[in-house]
Amino acid sequence: MNAFPVVDPIPLPAPVWLVKALHIVTLALHFISVELLLGGLLVATWLSFRGANPLGHPVAALRLNAAAAIARRLPVLMTYVINLGVPPLLFAQVLYGRAFYTSSVLIGFYWISVVFLLMACYWLLYEFAAGTEAGKSVWWQGLVAWLIAGSIARIYSTNMTLMLRPEVWPQMYSASASGTHLPPPDPTLMARWLFMMTGGLWVAGLWMIWLAGRKVIDGPVRSYLAANGGRLALVMVAVQALVGFKVWQAQPAAVQTMMLTGRVADGLTAGREMQALIASMGGLYRYAGLLWLAGAGLVFGFAVWAAWGKPQSKAAGFVGLVLVLGTALSMTFFRDGLRDLTLLSKGFDVWQRTVVTNWSVVGLFLALLVGGLFGLGWLISVVMRARPVSEKVV
């Protein structure tokens, strides 16, 4: 018996490929903001802690100023985390609602708690930023905020993994319908969560290189940010690659077969159209994985240069930005393949949906999307042209 609820009779108002493309792009942007927040917060917390000992030492002052340079941007970054998280969540509900709603209900208590955890984390970010700007070592506030943010990430990873496991849904609902029970252990969950957490640290390293190009920050602090950002990135991108290999190893054999060969795994039935789709999409997923590995290699090389070259230019920051965007897009596309093929192996075909395209609505949506992006770009340009103010705090 198919464990997934019946398909919603209301047809999709846009082609599946368009909804998926929008989902992947917006999700990649959300992932970047999340990794910046998680990694940047942990780095700022560590610098604040190290800056307190020995207090008054020149290196301690560098650390406190570097912590303040990162921390004062975290509350603004949180707005991007939240707002960039809404579109991919809505697109995921459209495409995977039958699985996503079920898993959300089964862990409803934890899923709803995200709202309150998010508010607490947001408040602590403001407190942490204010403390660092005052030249204080308030590392404990940053640590608590990071633990809360990491817990939110863990809840999301749990839900996104549970939606791929219809075989455990009856067991969980029989145990409790209150949404307070967590799912049975899954071999991919910890690896998936660690992949995002370790990724946040090398992304934060490239962010430090970006900040090193900001002339409002004192020269010695900029040099400190560039060197340590490069060292952090070169270590953590290698660590994330190892964790990524663990994520791949934990995938079901049927999913690995379809990803690598582009053929339907043994024991699964699929029509001619589905076989052709798997063959074509499997190739794209493989290329996305190879692009991510290539991007990780470029990040490693760039980080080595930054660690010893100590770049203090906007050009170096933009190179890091391009590398982050490229790796995030390729990783998100590869992740999308893992999800689709895992669901397919369990009887859920995301492409088999009734579509009645309303091109006038689609056109209006895309026009508003482009207009919003232009508006966002204009606002960022205004901020970039604003009169610089020194960010020295110690």
Describe this structure in words.
The structure is a single chain. It contains twelve helices and no strands. The chain has helices at residues 16-51, 58-71, 74-106, 108-133, 139-162, 169-175, 189-212, 219-249, 253-261, 272-309, 314-344, 359-385. The model has no long low-confidence stretch (mean pLDDT 88). The radius of gyration is 22 Å and the shape is globular. Helices cover 76% and strands 0% of the residues. It has one domain (16-355). Helix 1 packs antiparallel against helix 2 and helix 2 (58-71) packs across helix 8 (219-249).
Which key phrases capture this entry?
394 residues; mainly alpha; 12 helices; 76% helix; globular
Short description:
This protein is mostly helical and 394 residues long.
Give the SSE map:
Blueprint: H1 16-51, H2 58-71, H3 74-106, H4 108-133, H5 139-162, H6 169-175, H7 189-212, H8 219-249, H9 253-261, H10 272-309, H11 314-344, H12 359-385
Helix pairs in contact: 1-2, 1-3, 1-5, 1-7, 1-11, 2-4, 2-8, 3-4, 4-5, 5-7, 7-8, 7-11, 8-10, 9-10, 9-11, 10-11
Roughly what percent helix?
Answer: over 70%
CA-atom Rg in angstroms: 22 Å
Order of helices and strands: HHHHHHHHHHHH
> Helix- and strand-based class?
mainly alpha
Mean pLDDT: 88
Shape: globular
**N-to-C CA distance:** 66 Å
Strand tally: 0
Largest sheet: none
Q: How many domains would you count in the coordinates?
A: 1
How many DSSP H or I helices?
12
**What amount of the residues lies in strands?**
under 5%
